[in-house]
Amino acid sequence: MTFATRITTADGPSVTVISETSAITDWVGRYLGLWWTAENVDPGTADGPVIRADIDERQHAALGRRVLAGRPEEIAYAAAPMLVSRSESGLVTATQPQDRLSYEWAPDATRMRIVGTDETSVATATARLAREVVRGRLLADGWQILHASAVTRPADGATLLTLGNKGAGKTTTGFLLARTGGFQLLANDRVFARFDGEVIRVLPWPSAAAIGFGLLDALGWYEPVRARVRAGEQMHPTQKQKVTDALLAGDRTPLWKAAGAEMKPQFFPDQLETWLGLTLATEGHVVGVLFPEIAPGGTPALITVARGVADADFFGAATEDRYPDVFGLLPVETSTAELAEHLGRLPHQALTMNHDSEASTAVLLEAAGVIL
Question: Is CATH 3.40.50.300 the right assignment for the domain spanning 144-208+268-371?
Answer without folding.
Answer: yes
